[in-house]
Amino acid sequence: MVSRTCLFALLIVxxxxxxxxxxxxxxxxxxxxxxxxxxxxGRTLVSKxxxxxxxxxxxxxxxxxxxxxxxxxxxxAPAVPVFPSALVTEMxxxxxxxxxxxxxxxxxxxxxxxHKLRRDHTVNLPERVYIDISGARVAPGVKDIPIxxxxxxxxxxxxxxxxxxxxxxxxxxxxxxKIFPLSDPFRIIIDVRGERRTEISRLEExxxxxxxxxDIRKEAVGEEDKAVSAKGKPxxxxxxxxxxGHGGHDPGAVGPGGIREKDIVLEIGKKxxxxxxxxxxxxxxxxxxxxxxxxxxxxxxxxxxxNADLFVSIHANASLNKSTAxxxxxxxxxxxxxxxxRVAARENNTSLEKVGLLQSILFDLMANYKINDSARLxxxxxxxxxxxxAKKYAGARNLGVKQGPFYVLVGATMPSILVEVAFISNEHxxxxxxxxxxxxxxxxxxLMGIRNYIKGLH
Length: 458
Hints:
single chain; alpha/beta; Immunoglobulin-like; Aminopeptidase; 2 domains; 16 strands
């Protein structure tokens, strides 16, 4: 006979065998093994379902603290996005005995800082200006530029640190320098000025390689042209640069029927250059005489390089309002109206925001610009151009003289203006712009304004 004690023990063992495991014990087993080996067949399905839930929870616990999609674990530093370095793709220079411009082009906008260092006699280092460009590297093929114009000896470029490019200008003798950015593409412009040491007597010597295309000066000159050219030049204005806007891959504004600003202003520019040379006997240099692209900073650099006395940039206006029409002339200054800022943004091929940034540095840049002379030149050209056009074409509108921050005028050391000869976006004026007669009339009006300006100098 089994004792009561044995029966009691047997009952306890049976209860332990048939009762399910506690939830905590099951989760622990499933987490570790997938399915608890001590569960019954009726519990297996449940255990598998819980296994999936617990596996997910386990994975979550292993990566606890990760933010969605970031893969970052709590306690780790936030991942810093790694952007490829900007590339210094080109470095160019233009110079004459009292002016040098160096342009550094990058493939994107960057931050930069610049400093001037005194001459170090202990290690035989010249006075120099250097620009540190952050987050950049030098592209293959970009090399130092020997200058040797009496102001700068050389422009050097190198990888100062893995993420910093340093551009160094070795100075020979300068009075002042200005450094400012331009956009689209991003360029850092360094303008250096000093005392003129020698007079450039021949135009060809002063231009050299600055004009990459055949120039209008090299076209055949008739006997009558030669006779007029020999009449002698006004002493205060000996050379004028005519700048047809846009060109090449930049068509400028496009009007009805596909008429392009770059084509119209080139034709007007050629006609104006012929008239200046023929009727006034003044040397003319065109920034372009064919359909090529000239960067904005190169246009005034050419004018400075050839010691021009006047700079006239020719453009056709455009507006979203197709009924807007008329003639207006600009000179470099801060834009006083939103409309002037929008015109500058379009001609600069940039945004209103970038125009605002340029305005913020113009106070410092315009110290030596011929603002008052430019305003007088703009006034004379605007009046004469409108008078000449109004005599032939009824309804011509005089929109007046305005001022704005135009890239193409920044850095010019002579009186300089930008003439908007008509609105190419206006159907009627676009038709006029396409006619040879209107182009001749426009060129004659600008010429008359230049003549009146020169008369006022004597």
